[in-house]
Amino acid sequence: MKHPELATLALHAGGDLGPLARWRARRHLAKCETCRAEIAGFDAARGILPELSAIPEVPWNRLAAEMKANIRLGLAAGECVRVEDGPRLGAPLFAWTRAAAALASVVVLVAAGFVLERPAPRMDTAGFQGVELQSTANGIQVREGGGALGLLHNGAEARDVNYTPGAQGSMRAQNVDSETGYVTVTNVYAN
Amino acid sequence: MRIRTLGRLAALGWVGAATLMAQGYPLPSGSISIKFPDDSPVLFSGSLTDQSRATARGAAMAIDLRLSMLLRNVSGSRQIHGVTLRVVSQEVAVGGKGSVTYPSLHVGPGESFPVRLEMQLMRPTQTVNGPLVEVNLDGVLFGDLTFYGPNRLNSKRTMTAEELEARRDREYFKRALAQNGVAGLQSAVLESLVRQSERPRLDALVIRGGPSVAASANPAQENTANFAFVRFPDSPVAPISGSARISGNEASAPRVQVRNNSGKTVKYFELGWLVSDPSGQQYLAASLPASDAGLMLRPAGTAQVMQDTALRFTRNGQPVRVQGMTGFVSQVEFENGEMWIPSRQTLESAALLRLLAPSAEEQRLSDLYRRNGMNALLEDLKRY
């Protein structure tokens, strides 16, 4: 027998299921002792929740009242200091400074969007249907479809990296890791 | 009032831009799965990926993965001379995978050594299901040339060949020291550094599958060119004939026939493939490995290498027209696991040494001299 998710049973115990889900849960509970026990457990847990709100050390109700009063006070203070600077008669709706500022903001957003949306220069993946392997500015990569995997040798001078393509479909790079001093040979393969 | 409004709008713009720029976020734990076998002779510890980040690129996602860890030799009594890690990201490129090998090691029992992996992934979607990358141990080569590991990338053969090259070139520098003292060693190292810096290089794009391999971009310019061969007297395998299609700066579909001249069965061989430009300048174009995974080339038998790939060559961003091609046998593995590589003298006398990339050990030793001086090199040569 397939049992409903625990979350579903919990929602059912709280009366929060939709009509169809509630009907299905009831149908299952009618013939499942295990799930009925789960529901009973949830009911018991809900039963002690009101007791939590009455914990004597934490005066929740008084705290709530104070918070509401503080919010009202803040709003009232804001009203007192607010400067009446609504649109004046004869003032243009779009002053040139506002328009310029808005335009500048749009330019900034468009530029940021362009920077983020541009293709990554080292991971060109468009317009090819086979598998390509090549060296890049700081590593080697294999790309296929819209995906690419590159192994990098950051920190190595270009002249210190030796590349060897493999005619079976591979690319190899060999360099000395400047941090560890060990020779590192990376390979990417087409298959 | 205007200044205040302008300031507010500018601040709003910058907040918006900053929010957009902040789409890069640290990768969740579990993005990199590192799995070593239970009985592995190396254990990893202290893995660190705190600089790994993901950044949205439109509908795609660019991921920078940085992994640092320590590998420890727990083999008991054997010295580790090479380790290969396999890096797989199935969701990124179907079947695309990579590896990182650390050759020329001398890691004794109980000793540790640091490794770094830096990867960049471009995923076509931003959906993340499970680890982005799996790092597994593919093999460990010991000083006695025994091997441990699943060997899914043929790292046993690759690391054994690298180890033989390392011994050959280490011996070359030791001999220079023994015969001509420190001045002789210095001369040999400087000669190596000059050769490495002056080695003619090409940028190559390897293409497998797709329209570029199936048909040339300009069939009118395409022709079939034959290989010339450099034959080594002591090579167990000799090239007989070979050709490839050439079109401008692209060479594709190489075919080479070889003969087993040794008395032992050969299960793998590899050729070096040189191309020359119209001025006659030669470059190492690629390695050309045997294409038959189940090869068993009996003595006096022949076999053919066929690879359906295309290589496109450029130099400083400009296409380099392929004028001629040369091949030579660079590696042979026998059925019993023994390997043959050309000697240093053979490569030098065939004028190939100046064209080939240095071995890992030659590069390590010359780099040690360049960074830390003669005393550090002498110390290293004395140690092993």
Which percent range fits the helix content of chain A?
40-55%
**Biggest sheet architecture of chain B:** 11 strands, mixed
Greatest chain-chain interface?
A: A-B, 76 and 86 residues
Specify Rg of chain B, calculated over alpha carbons. Answer: 25 Å
Radius of gyration of chain A: 33 Å
Order of helices and strands of chain A: HHHHHEEEEEE
Beta-strand fraction estimate of chain A: 15-25%
Strand residue percentage of chain B: 35-45%
Name given to the CATH homologous superfamily of the largest domain in chain A: Anti-sigma factor, zinc-finger domain
Class by helix and strand content of chain B?
Answer: alpha+beta
The tally of strands of chain A reads: 6
What is the end-to-end distance of chain B? 78 Å
Give the topology, please.
The complex is a heterodimer of chains A (191) and B (384).
Chain A: H1 6-13, H2 19-29, H3 33-53, H4 60-81, H5 96-117, E1 131-136, E2 139-144, E3 147-152, E4 162-166, E5 170-176, E6 183-189
Antiparallel strand pairs in A: 1-2, 2-3, 4-5, 5-6
Helix pairs in contact in A: 1-3
Chain B: H1 2-21, E1 25-26, E2 32-35, E3 42-48, E4 53-57, E5 60-73, E6 80-88, E7 97-102, E8 112-123, E9 133-142, E10 147-148, H2 155-198, E11 203-208, H3 211-214, E12 223-230, E13 237-247, E14 250-260, E15 266-276, E16 282-289, E17 302-306, E18 309-315, E19 318-319, E20 324-334, E21 339-340, H4 344-349, H5 360-372, H6 374-383
Parallel strand pairs in B: 2-9, 12-20
Antiparallel strand pairs in B: 1-4, 3-5, 4-5, 5-8, 6-7, 6-9, 9-10, 11-18, 12-13, 13-14, 14-17, 14-18, 15-16, 15-20, 18-19, 20-21
Helix pairs in contact in B: 2-5, 5-6
Attribute tags:
heterodimer; A: 191 residues; alpha+beta; Arc Repressor Mutant, subunit A; 3-stranded antiparallel beta sheet; 6 strands; 19% strand; flat; B: 384 residues; Immunoglobulin-like; 3 domains; 11-stranded mixed beta sheet; 5-stranded antiparallel beta sheet; globular
